[in-house]
Amino acid sequence: MQLKGIDHVVIRTLNLEAMIDRWLRLGTGPQDDGLRARLRGKLRAAYDPTDPLWRERVIETGRSMHVAALEGLCAWQTETAGA
Question: Residue 65: is its pLDDT beyond 90?
Answer without folding.
Answer: yes
